[in-house]
Amino acid sequence: MKTNGLLKNSRPQNGVLLASLFLLFLFTMNSRAADVDALLTRMTLEEKIGMLHGRADPDPALGLNGAGYVQGVPRLNIPPLRLADGPAGIRTRLPATALPAPIALAASFDADLAFRYGASIGREGLARHQNVLLSPMVNIVRVPQAGRNFETLGEDPHLAAVMVGAEIKGIQEQGLMATVKHFIANNQEDNRFAVDTTIDERTLREIYLPGFEAAVKAGVAAVMCAYNSINATFACENDALLNTVLRQEYGFKGFVMTDWWAVHSLNALTQGLNLEMPGYEIPAYSQPVYFQEPLLQAVRSGAIAESAVDQALRPILVQMERFGLLDAALPEPQMDEQAHAAVALESAIKGAVLLKNRDRALPLREEQLDKLLVLGPTASHTLVGGGGSSRVLPLRRDSSLDELRRLGGGEGLHYLPGVELDGQAIPARFLSWAGESGLLRYQGRSPADSTTAPRRDAQLVFTGEQALSGAEAWTWTGQLQVPASGSYELKIQTRGGSGRLYLDDEMLAFSDEGVLSQASLIPTRDGLRNDGASRELVAGRSYQLRVEARAQNPDAKLEIRLSWLTPEQKKAGLEQVQAQAQTASAVVVFAYVEGTEGGDRRSLALPGYQDELIETVTASARGPVIVVLNVGAPVTMPWADAADAILQMWYPGQEGGKATAALLLGHENPSGKLPVTFPHSEQDLPTPATIQYPGVGNRQQYSEGLFVGYRWYDEMHIEPLFPFGHGLSYSRFEYSDLDVESSPDQGLRVSFTLRNDSERAGVETPQLYLTQTGSQTLVLVPQKLVGFVKVPLAAGETRRLTLEVAPRAFQWWNPAHSAWETVPGPGILTIGASSRELRLSAVLDPAP
Length: 848
Ligand code: BGC
Fold this sequence. Notes:
The protein is α+β, with helices and mostly antiparallel strands. The protein is 24% helix and 25% strand. Strands 14, 15, 16, 17, 20, 22, 23 and 25 form an eight-stranded antiparallel beta sheet that branches. A six-stranded mixed beta sheet has the order 1-2-3-4-6-9. Strand 22 and strand 23 form a beta hairpin. Bound molecules: beta-D-glucopyranose (BGC). Residues 67, 85-86, 134, 181, 259-260, 389 line the site of beta-D-glucopyranose (BGC).
């Protein structure tokens, strides 16, 4: 890679220091390489290939199973590797500290916190006997629908890069290897295994790669390649990206592992892949394992040289050596539950974003607690995190409702779910088979395969004492009639197994236990998993109903219930809310979206009838209405004008209840800023064409180019609902006296004064944006984030602050020269409280 000359002129004393550090680095790397080479000569081909793919963990007894396991070579004292997710805490079968979702960490704009967030996962990973953490995820939020947006660090490359670097250092300084994922252009869940992304090189370099580049700079041990392909080459066999960009240009010395079942050929071995995961076949994926028998045969037949196997294995061993795994005994840290709970709490507080606060509706006043109405399922059951592989079994889970009660909301505090997720078991009189009430139950793989005579069940309710046991499967069939025409929610609820609900042969709902289960993360009040769907049903018609169920394993008991929410029940619930809102001093409504791996959202609206609930409340409440959002990505808010305050808590982790209550009551002061733009509507998104998102067939084009996130809204002059970088505080901050000077590294040094102009201590996050105006020919974004700082200020305190802007900020990637080059001409630097609330500016003429 060429540099533009700016980078060559660093100060001499820095140069000497850097040179010595570089020599030390080379020496350490060389001695490592020597040890590893010696080891490689002693390994058989089978032993080497045995370390290039994963397998099932042979030692499940301790409950330490994470997501992956790579066997070692005991005769050479090479230990196995255990790999565990993930981004919001360590996921094994044992509980761990569930931190707020990474998007909340990004919203903190706090690199020191990112380090501590990483450090607590790192420590717990070691305490759970893991060696490799499958985190952080630094894929840019390109579309708000993407199911895993909550696992990422937002839509801006600079923010993501700063946060990911700090987090990786935090993880790895504890002794756990970090894995940055998913390399690259894995920006949606729909069709993630097959989609091919057409993306131009400049966009790749300026938007999607900086997070990964920062991870390499921070010394990340591993990179996980993505499922998708980029410009027609699968990510896991992409020589240009894995070997040229990652290794040669960025200097990556670690290993590349596949995402689970993401390898497509043996070729991958020479195209930059080191490790195939999970390395065994499962019936659900018809994916063969390549780096096993096929690789062995290929080497034996001479089709692949053994040196290629050595080359793939070397970085894995080098990293094992670097992290002390080839040494005798490693210290075993303990879980420091209290310290990590404190990090979880701090992250939830610092990541919270106060989106709106009309007439200082927040913080709530003491006297309002006496007649407070709290609504919403996530008030009583904290939505700790999103769904999928990042889902942690929390050490504990508090609730906002309990915390509000504990902090003063006594007898007068009322709680209603507001939206009824449980429903009620469908009564026998609406179920029938052959003209008689109830459903027919078969035991066996299917009715035709029933092992016992079918029997009639009045209702489908087998919970608690009535749980079903046995190694077989069950099928219920019959007809459903409804008492009145209208919209019904039909639900299947299970524990200890799975249940599928079909209406007229269409599968409506599937509730099961697995990590990738699409069932609700919010259990029923009696702890069952819950999945359902709404359908317009007509009175007088008969609908064919079928439920298929099985226990998780032959020894498990299955609890299962078939429920519904009728239009009358829903109406009665909303009327009750309305009546209570009329007399409450204030109403706090918790609203949620369950983001999850494996699928995107079909709509940006809150699911179910939550919008209707909030609109009912804003229309009837006597006092202020405060909406607390537990969402991991943007939602539309048709009620935004009517609500008095909106507090975005994301998925706030196991201490989320405490954090939410403390912020609502003003014991803590919000300071988070949006790491993603919230649009007014789906029509405003940067990806209007289907070929952009979700793609046509298996093809997709990132034709919006650099105009991702706020860059799009700024370019198109679209007013977002809440812009990137936005976040209010209970304090007020004043900006003044902007000074810009050159910095010794040929970047810029920007100084300004920040004053807390209020009576309470608070934290502000000044953001620095660069606009480059000089070029007639080059496509340039209207502005981009180039710096930020998180500043705590006491009431009335004033501080002079300085931010450094690196030379790269002024450059663009010129694909014709394959090089970063300085954008010619003048520029403007602005600093402010969000991308749309800019307070001070300075003209740079010319840019450095
Ligand atoms: C996910 C990865 C995860 C892996 C192991 C995959 O489905 O995409 O992010 O690390 O599973 O759980």
